[in-house]
Design goal:
Length: about 50
């Protein structure tokens, strides 16, 4: 199991780079906005309106 670094500084070899963190944050925000849009449209439409 990986060593936890809760009480000490994280070594450079165990750190993630900024690019991968930014990509994850963009993906989370994009997915969340799409889920909200889908829920809003799905709630506003009848079943048959959503089929076309």
């Amino acid at each position: 199991m990986d060593k936890e670094h809760s009480l000490e500084r994280i070594p450079h070899s165990a750190r993630s780079n900024l690019f991968s963190i930014v990509l994850i944050r963009i993906g989370v925000n994009t997915a969340l906005s799409q889920f909200i849009l889908g829920g809003t449209l799905g709630h506003a439409m009848t079943f048959w309106q959503g089929q076309y």
